[in-house]
Design brief:
The protein is an alpha+beta fold. 25% of the residues lie in helices and 41% in strands.
Amino acid sequence: MSNIDTVKQIYAAFGRGDIPAIIDKLDPNIEWDVELSTPGVPWLQPRRGAANIPAFFESLAPLSFQRFEPHTFFADGNKVFVLVAFDVTHVASGKRYTFPYEGHLWVFDDAGKIVKYQHVTDTALHQRAARGE
């Protein structure tokens, strides 16, 4: 299975709400969004270790996803970069946000496990979405 296939399986599991299937693809010591922290956005915080990754998915609870479409996949060696389009609504305020080109960087080890994940995104828009503004 290619690294792109693994990432596609992760997105399919996300769509089903199958977090254990996602965790299964991660190295136990994964670094998740460790390059930068975005103040006020609970889902864009550094996490280390697969045991801490369910908290990422739990932190998305204030949002309702209307669309989540990984649409462009790039692979280079042990890295996969994906462009994702999605629309979310901040549940409490009812405000909707569109992200046409969110980037996700996945880094694999030689055994095919993901050792690093990083969002590449419009952090200001995420901050507004987190606050419901």
